[in-house]
Amino acid sequence: MERQYDVVIIGGGVTGTALLYMLSAFTDLKRIALVEKYPTIAAVNSKATNNSQTIHCGDIETNYSLEKALKVRRPAQMLVHYAEQLPPAVRDQVIYRYPKMVLGIGQAECDFLRQRYETFSPHFTGMRLLEKAQIAEVEPNVVQLNGQLRPEAAVAISILNEYTAINYGALAQSFVDQAQAIADSASGKTIDLRLAQQVQRVEPAGSSYRVITPDDSLIARFVVVSAGGHSLLFAHRMGIGLEYSCLPVAGNFYFTPELLNGKVYTVQNDKLPFAAIHGDPDVTTPGKTRFGPTALPLPLLERYSPKTLIDYLEVLKFDQTVAAVLWDLFKVRDIRNYIFKNMAFEMPLLNRRLFLKDARKIVPSLQLKDLEFAAGFGGIRPQLIDRNQRQLILGQAEIDPGNGLRFNITPSPGATTCLGNAEQDVLRIQQHLGCEFEQSGFEPALMPRN
Ligand SMILES: Cc1cc2nc3c(=O)[nH]c(=O)nc-3n(C[C@H](O)[C@H](O)[C@H](O)COP(=O)(O)OP(=O)(O)OC[C@H]3O[C@@H](n4cnc5c(N)ncnc54)[C@H](O)[C@@H]3O)c2cc1C
Questions:
Q1: What is the pLDDT of residues 5-26, one digit of tens each?
Q2: Residues with CB under 6 A from ligand 1
Q3: pTM assigned to the model
Q4: What is the dihedral of CA 175, 413, 125, 153, to 10 degrees?
Q5: Enclosing domain of residue 16
């Protein structure tokens, strides 16, 4: 007999598990399943080693406008507020307090950061503007060169005492643990965690949906697909979201010995659609500093899974419009050079030398011998191409046909916004199923305190 569920979530990354937690904790839905193809939670982009471990709240991301920064700040605060309430031993495996800064080098970047500080600091009260000598107090290696202060003009916008780093894998596990604890507490809820079960397809079954795995099929009144780039594949196979194609952009990292005390971001080139590299401590690898991520278009939906090339070719749906969008990108000199540079970052012998040049903007005394490619680290950002708008979408996107299906596609900062996205998913589920969404529990547990 097919088992019946109110909601089935496909994908056990931070997006799917945040929704599992939110449905268990704050709705009256009784039967929820999460199906994940790998034997562990958070095995792909949400794995701690595969992303930049940053809580993006808009203050040091110079590619965010004030409007975007204020938008992303709320879900970032929800995340921190949630994690702060975990038992201390769990909390300390999830969130980390490091200083963070965005560094301006040269007069133009310094002027830009001073101006940005004026605009942003009334909204982000923890911000401090650091002059070169003050940067040295927080991050000596950023400004020291041959025993002296580096010669170029340097200024930084910093936040010195907030939670800034996060292990998204541990966060996802905490969401699952919380959901299961609620189910075990005689709440009458069933949380069915189905690991190592790859969903093959979703098909309509009356007013519900059938979610089919090799060994089983589940009936769901609502299906949320939070399967990274594969969400688009599921949508396309159901004839939905065909206006979207995908440009997967891989991000790799390099390790050095410990050089930084916290996160040091650099000013974004506003012609480039991808964030500039940064350096920071790796929460999973004590004693090392990690630099990256690079940004290399790669025809895969999962970084270390060559067989996802076939899936990628299916979601690409290459046509004249996709070609035109890619050509428009390639025509911009800065983007073209950046793509070539990132290709060269992959070439043995050349890669470390080229990357060293970029990383020296952050640590000018960095030596080639100290750089080591972080093999096995990094992931893929599934950036969508909107055929109707003829443009690359830089943030996350959801496809919601309004009929009991929802598809989340979540490049950066999709991990930071996981609870915000889950909230949106729950509101749509509430609309469709008419369930309760308990604000009285939700607000104290998740709403940011001001
Ligand atoms: C290099 C890099 C750096 C990043 N840095 C940051 C950062 O610092 N801060 C930030 O907020 N974001 C960052 N991001 C983005 C962030 O990693 C993602 O937004 C986030 O992890 C997405 O989570 P997710 O659960 O949607 O997807 P994923 O973590 O990819 O999870 C999707 C899950 O779906 C499962 N799945 C797929 N197909 C099926 C199927 N057929 N059946 C069952 N399960 C399936 C997969 O196995 C996987 O577990 C970064 C991304 C990259 C690549």
A1: 999 999 999 999 999 999 999 9
A2: 10-16, 35-38, 42-46, 51-54, 56, 168, 198-199, 226-228, 230, 251, 293, 378-381, 408, 410-416
A3: 0.96
A4: 140
A5: 3-99+161-446
Radius of gyration for the chain, computed over Cα atoms and rounded to the nearest angstrom: 22
What confidence score (pLDDT) does residue 271 get?
Answer: 77
Contacts of 221 (CB under 8 A, 6+ apart): 5, 6, 7, 207, 208, 209, 404, 432, 433
Q: Which residues contact 156 (CB under 8 A, 6 or more apart)?
A: 101, 102, 103, 104, 113, 129, 130, 135, 142, 264
Confidence at residue 349, expressed as pLDDT on a 0 to 100 scale? 76
The pLDDT, as a whole number, for residue 75 is 96
Contact between 102 and 266 under an 8 Å Cβ cutoff? The reply is yes
Residue 141 lies in a domain: no
Identify which of 310, 412, 424 to mutate to test ligand 1's pocket (most ligand atoms within 8 A of the CB). Answer: 412
* CATH label of the domain that carries residue 259: 3.50.50.60
* Nearest C-alpha neighbor of 9 from the set 165, 218, 159, 186: 218
- Residue 178, in any domain of the structure: yes
Does residue 122 form part of some domain?
no
CA distance 86 to 266: 32
CB-CB contact of 107 with 261 (8 Å) = no
pLDDT attached to residue 450: 64
Q: What is the number of domains present in the chain?
A: 1
Q: pLDDT of 365-393, one tens digit each?
A: 999 999 999 999 999 999 999 999 998 88
- Residue whose C-alpha is closest to residue 224's, from 419, 29, 416, 32: 32
pLDDT digits (tens, 9 = 90+) for 257-278: 999 999 999 998 877 777 789 9
User: Which residues in the chain come in under a pLDDT of 70?
Assistant: 450
Question: For ligand 1, atom 3, which residue shows the shortest CA distance?
Answer: 51
Query: Is 142 inside any structural domain?
Result: no
Q: With H, G, I as helix, E, B as strand and everything else as coil, classify residue 245.
A: strand
